[in-house]
Design brief:
Layout: H1 20-35, H2 38-49, E1 57-61, H3 67-76, E2 84-89, H4 96-104, E3 108-113, H5 116-120, E4 130-134, H6 142-155, E5 158-164, H7 168-174, H8 184-195, H9 202-206, E6 213-220, E7 224-231
Parallel strand pairs: 1-2, 1-4, 2-3, 4-5
Antiparallel strand pairs: 5-7, 6-7
């Protein structure tokens, strides 16, 4: 069954960062990422997008509390020493404990509390080896999504995104996240996320300057959808 894409505001995005429901929902998302094996999916995509070469500068867009990137750092630090990591989110949710985790690995962490458009359109001249997005792109559609993808293409040599897969099995699974102990906010947003997710080559169709990039787009596991882009000649 083909599910039409529908983007609606999610409850977590409308809650203050200190709201107990938001705090609980962010904890739920960490659990869901583990159940979905998101880190393993991202690592496989990164290996392809970077051609196995260690990146020096990594940025995660919509990074939330930064814990997923920290898990990635812990897995990759032995082969990726001295990485400069930047987390971009409209709220500063990164705890001192997470900062210490990066420092213990020898990684430099920069936290940018900013609207994604401000960061992508900013004057920072640094070229980033790798940009990441997890459960982020599905919040946008149309010209807004196209603008984000164009900004990513300008600021990176490689890009890896892991998004909800818009499919019947994923939609069915989204209705069951309560079995993981997720709260009402997460239960609501899980369904909306799948409805706003991606399938087939939808992101590829929106990616700019295709002649300058190698792209791939594919389903991963039961619930995830991946998009990879590597600048030609990199």
């Amino acid at each position: 069954m083909h599910l039409p894409r529908r983007v609606e505001p999610e409850a977590l995005d409308r809650l203050p960062e200190t709201d107990p429901r938001a705090i609980r929902s962010r904890r739920d998302l960490r659990r869901i990422n583990r159940v979905m094996a998101t880190l393993s999916i991202l690592c496989r995509g990164i290996e392809v997008a970077t051609r196995g070469r260690p990146p020096r500068r990594i940025v995660e867009l919509g990074a939330g509390d930064g814990t997923l990137l920290l898990r990635l750092a812990r897995r990759r630090a032995p082969k990726w020493p001295g990485v400069e990591a930047t987390v971009v989110d409209w709220q500063n949710l990164v705890t001192p404990e997470t900062r210490r985790g990066f420092a213990a690995l020898g990684w430099t962490l920069r936290v940018v509390a900013s609207d994604v458009f401000e960061w992508l359109d900013g004057s920072d001249p640094v070229a980033h080896d790798l940009l990441l997005a997890n459960l982020f792109l599905h919040h946008f559609e149309g010209e807004v999504l196209a603008r984000i993808l164009s900004g990513i293409a300008r600021r990176s040599a490689a890009f890896v995104a892991c998004e909800p897969r818009r499919a019947s099995v994923a939609l069915f699974g989204s209705h069951l996240v309560g079995l993981l102990g997720c709260n009402a906010v997460t239960r609501n947003d899980a369904v909306l996320s799948v409805q706003a997710g991606f399938r087939d080559a939808e992101l590829t169709a929106m990616w700019p300057e295709k002649r300058s990039w190698r792209v791939d787009e594919y389903p991963a596991g039961l619930f995830s959808h991946c998009f990879l882009a590597t600048r030609s000649g990199e």
